[in-house]
Specification:
The chain folds into 3 domains: about 40-90 and about 365-510, Orthogonal Bundle (Cyclin A, domain 1), CATH 1.10.472; about 105-210, no CATH class; about 245-355, no CATH class. About 50% of the residues lie in helices and about 0% in strands. It has helices spanning about 40-60, 85-95, 110-115, 170-180, 190-195, 205-210, 220-240, 250-260, 275-290, 300-315, 325-335, 335-355, 365-385, 385-395, 400-405, 415-430, 450-465, 465-470, 475-485, 490-510. The longest helix has 23 residues, at about 220-240.
């Protein structure tokens, strides 16, 4: 009797070779659970103690409960603790809270960007002051102001609570972001540390380019650097994209054809990507990126990775409180057409900076992804030996479900809102080198190891989160579940817990002697 086919997504992906998603004809004998790590447990005891100390500050910053007790037997650690009894009530309270009012103090730091294209007839735009973000609880918020010009201005102060009420922790965080982003020279080390626990939405369009090293931290260099990079991209569009098919090579025709197929299917749940203007911009970004990276070319999945940058940078030019619909984009483009062009150019360079750090994920055979999947498999064997043994017993290969997690950086597993929160932490881990014009201000110690190692731990945290359910499933159920994770009801608190658990795993295992991810 031939093996049964399992409904679901096609298992063949360009550059990846792995078994098809078919159930085994006969189940092999149950595999024994992997033995505990052969290394002496003493290093893990010390690592667990260090992780517990370090994790306490992370849990506090993320606003979730304390870290669970770590196992020191060399096999694994416990998952994040259950929510406090009043967590559901606090979630409901947050859901019912009125949206924040007030201005965008962080937008002042991007004032230079709006005038960076004035030589192209873009016009100039600047903010001389910005009201502070007001309190979302208590009485009327206070206000703060800031001013700036050139390559970004100063940030306004954070609004206070009602009369006699001290500012909340969130207001203090917002105020700290505004202070950092409004400085003459942004302290990147402090910005990375603060961004790890999440970035206020109205600050992302400034913080993300800074964290990626695209926007110079020195405000004096910002306008010139942004103008130069934007012009470089925009001048490449008519040279490479706006040409006839007769002028394209067969490779370029094939690349463009695939991009034109993929773009309409990209992030269909977000109204902003239904705009023809945004779709054309995304097509240009992906095509130019593919031509500039011939070793990889265009790979399906890069279109997904580009969407967070478009969402953050486009939303920065839309009215605060708008629904971010295609109509909003059309209206802004009609009134200020240069804003969309700027966001497109910035999205291209931010995407390039991010993918350059994981470039071998997209070259032939995608060796970077293959390594990450292997590391995930070995990590789960140490964290949850029982789950690892069950997956092997069911003949489920990690590549069959984790390839997409690595290729698309979990873009297809969570809503875009939660991806933005996850990427706040990833970009804080990125630690990319800065613009060459400002490299003298950057110390070698400020350059991080990148987000890819943490991403593996986040995937391990995600998989072990459902360990109990997965242990009760057979092959077909495992495939269907892992290809359609039930995360639609997740909120930012759930994402914070996922990240904090990944941090605990990383603290325990990443720097352990002879660790698999070294």
């Amino acid at each position: 009797m031939p093996p049964k086919k399992v409904p679901g997504k096609v298992s063949t992906v360009r550059g990846a070779s792995y078994p098809p998603l078919t159930a085994p004809a006969a189940r092999p004998p149950a595999a024994a659970a992997p033995a505990a790590a052969s290394a002496s447990p003493q290093p893990l005891v010390r690592a667990a103690a260090a992780a517990a100390s370090a994790a306490s500050s992370v849990y506090s910053a993320l606003g979730v409960g304390g870290a669970g007790t770590a196992s020191t037997a060399g096999v694994g650690v416990s998952r994040a603790p259950p929510l406090p009894p009043d967590m559901d009530a606090r979630r409901q309270q947050r859901a019912n809270a009125p949206p924040g009012e007030g201005g965008d103090a962080c937008a002042v730091a991007r004032a230079g960007g709006n005038s960076a294209m004035e030589g192209d007839g873009a016009g100039a735009a600047s903010d001389s002051s910005a009201p502070a973000v007001s309190s979302t609880s208590g009485g009327t918020g206070g206000s703060g102001s800031g001013s700036g010009s050139g390559g970004g201005g100063g940030g306004g102060g954070s609004g206070g609570g009602g009369a006699g009420c001290p500012p909340s922790m969130e207001q203090q965080r917002i105020g700290r972001f505004e202070e950092l982003l409004g400085a003459e020279i942004v302290d990147l080390k402090a910005l990375r540390a603060l961004s790890w626990g999440g970035i206020p939405p109205h600050c992302r369009a400034t913080a993300w380019p800074l964290l990626l090293g695209y926007m110079p931290p020195n405000r004096a260099f910002r306008a010139a650097a942004l103008s130069r990079r934007r012009r470089e991209y925009l001048e490449s569009v008519p040279q490479h994209f706006e040409v006839s098919d007769a002028e394209r090579s067969e490779y370029e025709k094939k690349t463009l054809h695939q991009i034109l197929i993929d773009v309409p299917r990209t992030s269909t749940s977000s109204p902003i990507f239904q705009s023809p203007l945004v779709q054309r911009a995304l097509e240009r970004v992906l095509y130019i990126w593919a031509l500039r990276h011939p070793a990889s070319g265009y790979v399906q999945g890069v279109n997904d990775v580009a969407t967070p940058f478009f969402l953050v940078l486009l939303a920065d030019g839309l009215p605060r409180g708008s629904a971010h619909t295609a109509e909003d984009v059309d209206e802004v483009h009609r009134r200020q057409p240069y804003l969309l062009a700027q966001a497109e150019a910035d999205a291209f360079w931010c995407l390039s900076r991010l993918l350059d750090s994981v470039h071998d994920n997209y070259t032939f055979a995608q060796p970077g992804i293959q390594r990450m999947v292997f590391k995930l498999k070995e990590l789960v064997a140490r964290i949850d030996a029982k789950l690892h043994a069950h997956l092997l017993d069911e003949n489920l290969q990690f590549i069959q479900f984790a390839f997409r997690w690595m290729n698309c950086l979990l873009l297809r597993e969570f809503s875009l809102d939660l991806i933005l929160r996850l990427w706040d932490t990833y970009l804080a881990e990125y630690g990319g080198s800065e613009d060459v014009s400002d490299m003298s201000l950057v110390e070698t110690s400020d350059i991080g190891e990148g987000f890819a190692p943490l991403h593996v731990y986040v995937c391990a945290s995600l998989l072990t989160h459902w360990s109990k359910q997965l242990l009760a499933m057979d092959f077909s159920e495992l495939v269907m579940f892992l290809q359609n994770l039930p995360t639609s009801g997740w909120c930012e608190t759930d994402m914070a817990e996922l990240i904090s658990q990944a941090y605990v795993y990383k603290s325990l295992y990443h720097h352990a002697p002879g660790h698999l991810l070294q």
